[in-house]
Structures are given as C-alpha cells and as structure tokens.
Amino acid sequence: MYYQPKINGFTNSVVGVEALLRWKTADGDIIMPNDFIPIAESSQLIIPLGEFVLKQACVQAYEWQKTIPDLHMAVNISPVQFTLQLVETVTAALEESGLKAQYLELEITESLLINDEDSINIIHELKALGVKLCMDDFGKGYSSLSYIRKFPLDVIKIDQIFVRNMLGDDVDKGIIQTIILLADNLGLELVAEGVETQEHVNTLLAMNCKIFQGYHYSRPLPAEEITQYLLASLR
Ligand code: G
Ligand code: MN
Q1: Which ligand lies nearest to the CA atom of residue 221 in the structure?
Q2: Ligand 1: residues within 6 Å at CB?
Q3: Is this model's pTM higher than 0.90 or not?
Q4: pLDDT tens per residue across span 212-222
Q5: What are 78-113's pLDDT values in tens digits?
Q6: If you take atom 7 of ligand 1, which residue's CA is the nearest one?
Q7: In this structure, are residues 229 and 3 in contact, taking their beta carbons and an 8 Å threshold?
C-alpha cells in the first residue's frame, strides 16, 4: 500500500493521507490500480482486498496520529464493495485499530448507482458510524447535482483534469471556480487533486481552495517514506 499526503496550502501542514493500492509483481514491476482493480471487481476479489486495505489503512492512521494527532485517512471504496458487509468491515477496522471514525474518510465515485436504494441505505449506515464521505473525481463523470442532494457528503475532490488544464483553459478554470462556490455554499470540504506546480498552488489559493494533493507536494509513497515525510513536515 502507498499513501499520498493532502496538504493545507496556506499553512503547509499535512491534514491527511489517501491510501492507494499498488501491485508489485514477482519481477518487481509496479502495476497501477486502473490495471487490476477492474479485474478484482469482476471476480469479487475486491471484497477481501478492500477489507485488507481498510484495516491496514486504519492501523496505519492510528500509528501516524502519534506524530500528527488530527491526521485523516482516506480510503477508496469500489461500488462493488457497497454491500452491508462494508458497514461491518468499516466497524471492525475502526474497532481493531482504535482509530476514531471521524478520521476515516471513504472516497466514493459517481459510478456508484445513486438511484439504487440499497446503496443509499448503506451510505446512511456508514454515515451513522461517524466516518466522512468524499465524492472522488468530481466533475469527471455525470456530476449530477442530485448526488450532492441525496448523499450526505462531507468532502468533494475536484478531478485532476481540471487542475491540470486550468492555467491554459478558462473553461476548466471556470469549472473549478464553480465547484469551489458549490462546496462553499453547501458547507463541504474541498480537495484539489493533481496539484503539480507552485503555479497551481498559487492559482488555487487565490480562488480560496486550500487543501491540495499532488506531485507538487508528494507522489504516493510506501508507508516508511510517508513517515519520514510527516516528520519532516513538522520541522
Ligand atoms: O481516482 P483517484 O483520485 O483516487 O486517483 C488518484 C491517482 O492519481 C493515484 O493513482 C495517483 O498516483 C495519481 N496522482 C496523484 N497526484 C497526481 C498528480 O499530481 N499528477 C498526476 N498526473 N497524477 C497524480
Ligand atoms: Mn481517490
């Protein structure tokens, strides 16, 4: 498992990390999630894999909170994992690790079927545990505003594509400004992904968006390297 920090661009402090899976083959090659998650999803292997990730991430977050007490841990959840079993898995992951629910953030994507009553019930049960819910890759898919109405969201994450293009494209910049306003008006936290340069940071800060994730701060790294990163961030 790899982790990528989320940084408050005003204070330069680390506010959280996102757990990201990497698959290391016997030859030492690293395979990215896009190349194996769909297979895991179609074979139901995503269920034990997702359970492993949640449990590991909670244990790791609890450990890192000894360095940064308010550190959040974000975990990506596949739509296939959205069964009642997920509520049990999250409950167990929190209990076994000792991590408080408020520090766990579940990142879900728009591909989760909104009109599916079961998913909505599960979302409310997760919410009742006290965990935070984050809409990942916002703006990429349908970005239906009814998602925002029906899901009790806490955080939205602007898709990387807008940040990547915003400096050369007024439409992308306008979309970001609009998402920022949307988040402000609804009292949602906002994270900008794919922040790669100081210019990205400056432009987003000027638009009043301040939580950043991207190569400008750090690539996703193995746990030991993130430990060093967290320690260095306190100096
Ligand atoms: O869908 P999700 O937001 O969870 O995907 C995060 C992915 O984006 C990770 O696999 C990570 O490696 C990649 N990523 C993170 N930050 C950056 C960045 O600044 N630039 C680019 N190109 N990719 C990034
Ligand atoms: Mn994510």
Answers
A1: 1
A2: 4, 20, 76, 136-137, 160, 193-196, 213-215, 220
A3: yes
A4: 999 999 999 99
A5: 999 988 999 999 999 999 999 999 999 999 987 776
A6: 20
A7: no
